[in-house]
Design a protein that fits this description.
By secondary structure, this protein is α+β, with helices and mostly antiparallel strands. It has a single domain, classed as Beta-lactamase (3-Layer(aba) Sandwich). The chain has ten helices and nine strands. The longest helix is centred in the middle third of the chain and has 15 residues, at 121-135. The chain is globular. The chain starts with 9 loop residues before the first strand and ends with a helix.
């Protein structure tokens, strides 16, 4: 495994989620989407029927609960069989509906909407569909236009499979699952809202500062709503999530950011106005604690 230059693009996986969440809040600012609306209002008929077949009630789950992982929705990406299926057939083109089907097949809701916390990629897959319906354009374009990529100079950030790369010779950094180089895998297994963007560390650090400082939004009240951490029951090992991202320890300070499947993450510290980015290019599907500890150690050195 060769080290990758900082400016080399890579799949950012769940670090995509704050981009998607920000797009949802921007739609609310434009009065095209109300985050307290039930998701039933925006989902296609097929998605509603699949959820109802598994005991979910789309008329009782809000868009905001998808954002904050408090919907009770199970997570297709945590299924023991999902990653194995991806690795068995790395060329498969996964559809949004495939992932929702898997989540529903795992069992009934984990809790009543709003009564608990469970991280769910599937929730963001549904959120991707909702954003498309509200914005009346594909998710990749909605996120790009609502956030105004060009305003923040995100010239090396794009939605894989859905957009042409905006840079010349966009060879992606290699990314691994154990010893398996998964760089050639069809990225459709993680492009429907829970992931999907390709970016670079300079772009990500720039955007996360703009986002969590509130510059992306028209109103300070939007940022306040985005940083709200729901008061719900949590598992002992779960990490704090707001409606926009994760709380990440950074030595003597803390930051707002997010972690991703490919052992990557970015966090911005309001106290120091500095960002830290981490990329290991090795999957961390079930143990974000490793990345959290790395941010903690780096923060102690950078912010000493």
């Amino acid at each position: 495994m060769r080290p990758a230059a900082a400016e080399r693009p890579f799949r950012i996986a769940s670090v995509t989620k704050p981009f998607v969440a920000a797009a949802a809040f921007r739609l609310q600012e434009q009065r095209k989407l109300w985050l307290h609306q039930p998701i039933e209002t925006w989902l296609t008929g097929d998605s509603r029927r699949v959820l109802q077949s598994g005991g979910y009630e789309p008329d009782r789950i809000s868009v905001l609960q998808l954002l904050s992982h408090t919907s009770g929705l199970r997570d297709h990406a945590k299924s023991d069989g999902y990653l194995a299926a991806v690795m068995r057939n790395p060329e498969k083109a996964w559809r949004r509906s495939d992932q929702v089907d898997i989540a529903v097949s795992l069992g009934p809701p984990l809790f009543e909407p709003g009564d608990g916390f469970e991280y769910s990629d599937t929730g963001y897959v549904l959120l991707g569909e909702i954003i498309e319906q509200a914005a009346e354009e594909r998710l990749c374009l909605a996120v790009r236009n609502l956030i105004k990529f060009s305003q923040w100079g995100l010239g090396a950030t794009w939605w894989e499979l859905e957009e042409d790369a905006p840079i010349e010779n966009p060879e992606l950094a290699s990314q691994y699952i154990g010893r398996t180089d998964a760089s050639g895998y069809n990225p459709s297994f993680d492009i429907h809202g829970g992931g999907g963007l390709v970016s670079t560390m300079p772009d990500l650090c720039t955007f996360f500062r703009a986002l969590f400082a509130g510059d992306v939004f028209e109103s300070q009240s939007t940022l306040s709503a985005g940083l709200l951490i729901p008061r719900v029951d949590r598992q002992p090992d779960s990490h704090l999530h707001s409606n926009l991202g994760m709380v990440i320890p950074m030595g003597h300070h803390w930051g707002w950011g997010h972690l991703g499947f490919w052992g990557c993450g970015v966090a911005w510290s309001p106290a120091t106005d500095l960002s830290i980015g981490v990329r290991t290019h090795q999957s961390q599907p079930r143990n974000p604690k490793i990345l959290m500890e790395l941010f903690e150690q780096l923060g102690r050195q950078v912010f000493c």
